[in-house]
Amino acid sequence: xxxxxxxxxxxxxxxxxxxxxxxxxxxxxxxxxxxxxxxxxxxxxxxxxxxxxxxxxxxxxxxxxxxxxxxxxxxxxxxxxxxxxxxxxxxxxxxxxxxxxxxxxxxxxxxxxxxxxxxxxxxxxxxxxxxxxxxxxxxxxxxxxxxxxxxxxxxxxxxxxxxxxxxxxxxxxxxxxxxxxxxxxxxxxxxxxxxxxxxxxxxxxxxxxxxxxxxxxxxxxxxxxxxxxxxxxxxxxxxxxxxxxxxxxxxxxxxxxxxxxxxxxxxxxxxxxxxxxxxxxxxxxxxxxxxxxxxxxxxxxxxxxxxxxxxxxxxxxxxxxxxxxxxxxxxxxxxxxxxxxxxxxxxxxxxxx
Length: 353
Ligand SMILES: Nc1ncnc2c1ncn2[C@@H]1O[C@H](COP(=O)(O)OP(=O)(O)OP(=O)(O)O)[C@@H](O)[C@H]1O
Fold this sequence. Notes:
Elements: E1 11-21, E2 27-38, E3 43-48, H1 54-61, E4 69-74, E5 77-78, H2 84-92, E6 94-98, H3 109-119, H4 124-137, H5 153-165, E7 171-175, H6 183-200, E8 203-208, H7 211-217, E9 220-225, E10 228-234, H8 235-240, H9 245-254, H10 261-264, E11 277-285, H11 291-301, E12 305-315, E13 318-328, H12 332-341, E14 345-352
Parallel strand pairs: 3-8, 3-9, 6-7, 7-8
Antiparallel strand pairs: 1-2, 1-4, 4-5, 9-10, 11-13, 11-14, 12-13
Helix pairs in contact: 3-4, 3-5, 4-5, 5-6
Bound molecules: adenosine-5'-triphosphate (ATP).
Pfam family, one: NIL
InterPro entries: AAA+_ATPase (IPR003593), ABC_transporter-like_ATP-bd (IPR003439), ABC_transporter-like_CS (IPR017871), ACT-like_dom_sf (IPR045865), MetN_ABC (IPR041701), MetN_ABC_transporter-like (IPR050086), NIL_domain (IPR018449), P-loop_NTPase (IPR027417)
Domain ABC transporter: 11-251
């Protein structure tokens, strides 16, 4: 960037609630008691199912929605209470990108990126170099005079990103920005966002229903369900030791490991009478490896395990792995204690006869 970039701003949600008027005088609670702090320069992914409250949460950061209770602050400024010039100033600090790009069809790439600066009343001599810079940053120099209809989805999102950065915001909001893109284009857009975060230091808050997006880009994450944050923390920590059932179910989609059908169909929560096998998820992080552990279980304790499925993932530079195992239920407590003592995390998924 030719002009010095601003650093990111913290985003804080403090006991935020939001209710909408519903039909017949009823009220729809979209958010309840949401407290979350996103540090300056972090990339935070909010994941949740449809209707969980993600968009409502995001839209509070730029004042498109106001909380019914609690406060939302950007860089210490209370967004919900801001009006007029103060709200406009906050909005200049908060850029946003959208699932369907929201570009003006009648404007070229250049014209779309320049628009927020024209609205802000910047002199045209200052607009040109900044827009050229932004177009170069997102790699669209050769397409600057094209119209949106002449661009691919990934290129359109690059225009959306350049436009969102035009006012040199401290925060970038991403509303399912890669949901309409194919997996390869998703990766290039996520890489671009990560580069922007690294180079400009701005805080990125993104909402998604895809755990892979969180894994690939977010330093921190929060899981939202029924308007409440059910789990949050550094992405690596949540992936390695998910506590909430919703988090686990999102994770089972992304780790690519699910129980084989012949086991899943027979799985019971309670241990049955007689001989049975316990089905276990074992998670290992960083330097802990399972290979020696599983063979030591056999050589030291005489406990044999069956590996049902397994995969190794990376979160940023850190590897972590997941294994699904089954073993004699009568020896399972002993085996789990042994694995936990050696730094592995275990979770009982159920039992099969
Ligand atoms: N303007 C509104 N008026 C009434 N109810 C609303 C309004 N906006 C959202 N809601 C309700 O609030 C809840 C949360 O909606 P929200 O759009 O924030 O969820 P979401 O997680 O973003 O879902 P999706 O992924 O489908 O966009 C839903 O029950 C929704 O119907």
